[in-house]
Amino acid sequence: MCGRFYLDENKIDIEQSFDVDLNQLDFQSRYNIAPTQQLLTITQDQQGKQARRMRWGLIPSWSNGIDSRYNMINARAESIHVKPAYRRPFKRSRCLIPASGYYEWKMEKEGKQPYCITRKDNELIAFAGIWDTWESKSDKIQSCSIITTHANQSLEAIHVRMPVIISAERFDSWLDPTIENEEKLRGFLEPFQVPDLIFWPISKAVNSPKNDYPEIINKLS
């Protein structure tokens, strides 16, 4: 799964990497982004790529609104095309979610040990996501889910699942709302290549979303 991540790139790097303008958004680095919080997403429409703030945790357009009984922060790649909450956004409302890295917890003798996972080349990560808009007479909420798949050979030692990561050369195709072919779309949902990701153990301070500072990602000595 993917339940926490961080984004500490500067605004210019994000704009250049995703071909978007962040001037309309109050951007700042975050080191412990958690479910239900606002996160940065990249979408595409007839005007081109757009940077948007969205709630992490999908709220389907047809639902009654936020319901704490349901956890929709992640959508499984294996069933995204059939689940009622996900299948329409998967075809028509896909997004990219920029990240510098993410956190995962491994069960060890002393309990769950958190790890920081990032790209070996220090390039930005782009999670594959889906989004939707829920509206009432008085409110409008845009929200999203991160798509997950089975872990690659290296990461399965920490957790059996990982977020789907989209490579830069596939950004345009993934975001293109005119592409609705299910077989083609599911072809994007493969684990990221093993040599391209590295990881290390970090402090359990990351367990609390209140702890949001750069030292969170430091390797345990």
The H-level CATH homologous superfamily, spelled out, is SOS response associated peptidase-like
End-to-end CA span: 26 Å
State mean pLDDT (0 to 100 scale).
93
Q: Can you write the helix and strand succession as a string?
A: EHEEEEHEEEEEEHHE
Low-confidence stretches: none
Fraction of residues in β-strands? 35-45%
CATH architecture: Alpha-Beta Complex
- Assign a percent range to the helix content: 10-25%
Which topology does CATH recognise?
Answer: hypothetical protein yedk fold
For the record, what CATH class applies? Alpha Beta
Major sheet details: 7 strands, mixed
Q: Helix segment count?
A: 4
**What is the CA-atom radius of gyration, in angstroms?**
17 Å
Any idea how many domains?
A: 1
| Overall spatial form | globular
How many beta-strand segments? Answer: 12
Structural summary, described in words:
The chain has helices at about 10-20, 85-90, 170-175, 180-185; strands at about 5, 30-35, 40-45, 50-55, 75, 95-100, 100-110, 110-120, 125-135, 140-150, 160-165, 195-200. It has about 220 residues and is mostly beta strands. The chain has a single domain (about 5-100, about 120-195), classed as hypothetical protein yedk fold (Alpha-Beta Complex), CATH 3.90.1680.10. The strands form 2 sheets. Strands 3, 4, 5, 6, 9, 10 and 11 form a 7-stranded mixed beta sheet that branches. It starts with a strand and ends in a 20-residue tail after the last strand.
Summarize the structure.
The protein is 11% helix and 37% strand. The protein is mainly β.
Question: Could you list some keywords that capture this structure?
Answer:
single chain, 221 residues, mainly beta, hypothetical protein yedk fold, 7-stranded mixed beta sheet, 5-stranded antiparallel beta sheet, 4 helices, 12 strands, globular
